[in-house]
Amino acid sequence: MTDVLKCPKCSMENVYFDGTSYVCPDCFYEWSGEESAGNSIVKDSNGAELQDGDAVTVIKDLKVKGSSMVIKRGTKVKSIRLTDNPEEVDCKIDGSSIVLKTCFLKK
Question: Please, which residues bridge with residue 40 across strands?
Answer without folding.
Answer: none
